[in-house]
Hints:
Layout: E1 2-3, E2 10-11, H1 14-30, H2 35-44, H3 49-73, H4 79-105, H5 109-142, H6 153-161, E3 167-170, E4 175-178, H7 179-196, H8 201-212, H9 216-240, H10 246-266, H11 272-313, H12 318-324, H13 328-339, H14 342-398
Antiparallel strand pairs: 1-2, 3-4
Helix pairs in contact: 1-2, 1-10, 1-14, 2-3, 2-14, 3-9, 3-10, 4-5, 4-7, 4-9, 5-11, 6-8, 7-8, 8-9, 10-14, 11-14
Amino acid sequence: xxxxxxxxxxxxxxxxxxxxxxxxxxxxxxxxxxxxxxxxxxxxxxxxxxxxxxxxxxxxxxxxxxxxxxxxxxxxxxxxxxxxxxxxxxxxxxxxxxxxxxxxxxxxxxxxxxxxxxxxxxxxxxxxxxxxxxxxxxxxxxxxxxxxxxxxxxxxxxxxxxxxxxxxxxxxxxxxxxxxxxxxxxxxxxxxxxxxxxxxxxxxxxxxxxxxxxxxxxxxxxxxxxxxxxxxxxxxxxxxxxxxxxxxxxxxxxxxxxxxxxxxxxxxxxxxxxxxxxxxxxxxxxxxxxxxxxxxxxxxxxxxxxxxxxxxxxxxxxxxxxxxxxxxxxxxxxxxxxxxxxxxxxxxxxxxxxxxxxxxxxxxxxxxxxxxxxxxxxxxxxxxxxxxxxxxxxxxxxx
Length: 399
C-alpha cells in the first residue's frame, strides 16, 4: 500500500498503473486526454475530487506526447490547425473557468455542469451512431466500402463562406480555412471545456470532424497535439496549488505510456468510420455515468445540509466545513458520535452507492472498450502479415 502525501489516500500501486494503461489505450485511439475516465476512477479509489482532477491533469501532458509522436509518424497531426485553435482555446478556457467559479458561488455549478455533459454526450452518441448506421446502409446499397465520412454541409459552408483573410492551407487535411474560423472554434470549445473542467478533447474531436471537416484520424492526432499544451498548463496550475499527487501521476504515466502505443498504432489498421462507432459507444456509457451522478446529487443535498449543521455546532464553518465534506471517514465519525441523525447518514450511503455505481460503469466500459481496441489492433496486425505473406508468395510464383 502507498500513502499519498497530499491527500492522505492509501491505495496499492497496481490500480494506478492499470488506470494509466487503460486511459492510454483509449486516449491514443480517440485523441482524448482521458479526464472522463481518470477523474471518476481516482475518485472511486478515495481521492477527493480536487486531487483527482489535479492528478489527472498532471499525467495528461506526458501521455499526449507519446500518443502524438505516433500519430505524427502516421501523418495524422495538423500542426497549423492545432496551434491556431490553441490561441482561442486558452482564452476560452479562462472565460469558462470564471463562469464556473460564478456558478459555484451561487450553488449551481454541479447541476449545470452535469446537464451540459448529458446534452453533449448524448448528442455525440446519437449523431455518430446515426452516421455509422447510415454509412453501413450506403455500403449495402452501393456495394462500395465506406472508410470514412469527410466533411458535411456545415463544414463546407464554413470553409466556403467564412473565408475571411488570412486563409491558411492545411496540407494534412487537404483543405483551406480561415484563421478566424479556427480561433473562434477554439474559443467555443475552450469555453465549454472550462465550464466542464476538462482538457477539451471530448469536444474538439467532434468539432474538428463536423465543423472544420477534417478526416477522423487527423482530428484524433491534431487534438492530441493540442492536449499536450492544455494538459501541461492545467498540470502546472494545479501543481502550484498543491493539488497534484506526483507519485500517483507518475505511476499512471508509466501505464499510459505503454497503453498509448497500442491505442495509437490501432488507428493505423482501422477506418475512421470504426473510430466514430467506438467513440459513440464511449459517449453512451459516459452519459449513463453522468445521469447516475445527477441522481446521486439529489441525496447529497440532504446529507450535506445536515452535516453542515453538525459541523457548525462544532465550530467548523465556511471553506473548512466544505473541505471536510470530501472525506467520508471524518464525516462518519461526526455523524455517528455527534449528529445522531440516521436519516442524514442514510442519504449519504445512498448517494455514495449510486455514485460508486456510476464510477464502476465508466471504468468497466473503459476497460471493455480498451480490450476491444486491443482486439482490433491484433486483427489488423494479423491481416497485414497475412497480406504480406500472400504478396511474397505471388512474387515468388511470378519469379
